[in-house]
Amino acid sequence: MAEIAGERVQKGAAIVDHEHKVLPDYQAEEGQSAYIFMHTVPFEGSVGLVNMLTCTRIRRKGFDTHLILYGPGSLMAAATRGYPNVGDEAFPGNQSYNKQLQTIMDEGGHVYACRFSAAALYGMREIDMMPGVQPINPRDVLDFTIQAHREHALVLNTWTV
């Protein structure tokens, strides 16, 4: 068996330099917008939650932030999540999507969810979406893209299959 050299890391110890940044901590300029488009399956990897955390960070940098959930991403806005009862956290992180979406909205971000993918693909009604989430027509996804282009906005797109 190979012998391990060095001392065991203790809880709370830093193993990387988490203070050094290469770039300045950019903030939004007056009137700047950001559009984050997410077409991803909830709980099928970290991309959905990571992008919601990024969306929150963008909002905190001062951008007028718009999160557009479409395809399976519309399921992230489900207000009916939980087990054994709605709102219960069946396992650690079970409510993470709802909590992060609520944080985005509480901090002034706008959240939209495609009513086509919600209803036609997943049987989720508009009333089943979290309060504050704006249901949109599937054609609005393209129009949000055009609007973002016209505003010269920051745009992030995530697709997972």
CATH topology: Hypothetical Protein Ychn, Chain: A
Q: For the terminal residues, how far apart are their CA atoms?
A: 41 Å
What coarse outline follows from CA principal-axis ratios?
Answer: globular
What does the radius of gyration come to?
19 Å
For the record, the CATH class is Alpha Beta
Mean pLDDT level? 94
Looking at CATH, the homologous superfamily is: DsrEFH-like
How many domains comprise the coordinates? 1
As a percent range, the share of strand residues is 15-25%
Q: How many DSSP H or I helices?
A: 4
Q: Give, in order, the helices and strands.
A: EHEHEHEHE
Summarize the structure.
This protein has helices at residues 47-60, 96-106, 115-121, 139-151; strands spanning 33-39, 64-69, 110-114, 134-136, 154-159.
Explain this structure to me?
The protein is of the alpha/beta class and 161 residues long. The chain has one domain: Hypothetical Protein Ychn, Chain: A (3-Layer(aba) Sandwich), CATH 3.40.1260.10. The chain has helices spanning 47-60, 96-106, 115-121, 139-151, and strands spanning 33-39, 64-69, 110-114, 134-136, 154-159. It has a five-stranded parallel beta sheet with strand order 4-3-2-1-5, sandwiched between helices. Strand 2, helix 2 and strand 3 (110-114) form a beta-alpha-beta unit. Helix 1 packs parallel to helix 2. The longest helix has 14 residues, at 47-60.
